[in-house]
Amino acid sequence: MPRSSVKTRKQLLLEAERLFASKGIWQVQVQEIVIAAEQRNTSAVTYHFGSREGLLEGILTSHGQPIDEDRGDLLKSLTKESSTRSLINALVVPMVSCFETNSGCRYLQIVSQLSDQFSNWRNLSGNLSAPHLSKALNLLESRPAFLSATLRQERLIAMMQLMTSSLSERARSIEAKNETPLSNSEYKDNLVNMLVGILEAPVGN
Questions:
Q1: Closest C-alpha among 132, 183, 136, 124 to residue 160
Q2: What is the pTM of this model?
Q3: What Å distances lie between residue 146 and 84, 168, 173, CA to CA?
Q4: Which of 102, 113, 97 is nearest to 165 (CA)?
Q5: CATH number among 2.70.220, 1.10.10, 3.40.50, 1.10.287, domain 1-50
Q6: What is the model's pLDDT at position 121?
Q7: Taking Cα atoms as reference points, which of 110, 119, 99, 104 lies closest to residue 182?
Q8: Residue-wise pLDDT tens digits, 159-186
Q9: From CA 131, how far away is CA 135, in angstroms rounded?
Q10: How far apart are CA 136 and CA 31, in angstroms?
């Protein structure tokens, strides 16, 4: 691919990431992205990515694949007998590392906007496939054993929604340079505790 095309793709991804995070994926006009990326060709997004969805997939892939690789490293020593806390920790730690850059913070804000698709996690394919995420979720979906499969699935989706919305809000504060009361390590530990609570909460009368 010519160097100019690589540069154009990168610029479109960066501006789309910024606008999707700040204004909302579906609130941003494609032409806004083209203008922000300083492209003269009004069809630049279509040419390089095919559509808004292709551009979104490019953003999710560029962050999601290395995150899933890091998650895989954390899962290597874990088995189906490992604690719920250990498995959730493997989900959260790679996401918390996104706080280190503005681009990572924007990625977290974008992911949280896709919560209506979380129930479809088994069907991720192609560039969006995340085998280590799927492995962790499969193990977590079987817990706790005293709940019905339907309730376990409901809790798993609720856990994913809380995780991504919490990460998104903290990312927004960090990007805005607002003071955060907890360090990243303290925040991570507290988030893991809350997520464990969702899955393992007892059943009321």
A1: 136
A2: 0.93
A3: 14, 32, 38
A4: 113
A5: 1.10.10
A6: 84
A7: 99
A8: 999 999 999 999 999 999 999 999 999 9
A9: 6
A10: 39
Amino acid making up residue 91 = L
Q: How does DSSP assign the chain, residue by residue? A: --HHHHHHHHHHHHHHHHHHHHH-TTTS-HHHHHHHTT-S-TTHHHHHHSSHHHHHHHHHHHHHHHHHHHHHHHHTT--TTS-HHHHHHHHHHHHHGGGGSHHHHHHHHHHGGGGGGGGGGGG--GGG--HHHHHHHHHHTT--TTS-HHHHHHHHHHHHHHHHHHHHHHHHHHHTT---SS-HHHHHHHHHHHHHHHHHPPPP-
Nearest residue to 34 (alpha-carbon basis) of 23, 46, 26: 46
Question: Which of the four CATH numbers 1.10.287, 1.10.357, 1.10.10, 2.70.98 does domain 59-200 have?
Answer: 1.10.357
At 106 the pLDDT is 98
Using left for φ > 0, alpha for ψ between -120 and 50, and beta otherwise, residue 188 falls in alpha
Distance CA(107)–CA(111), nearest Å, equals 6
- Per the CB < 8 A criterion, the answer to whether 163 and 95 are in contact is yes
Domain chopping of the chain, boundaries: 1-50, 59-200
With contact defined as beta carbons under 8 Å apart, do 4 and 39 qualify?
no
**The tokens of 69 are what?**
């690789």
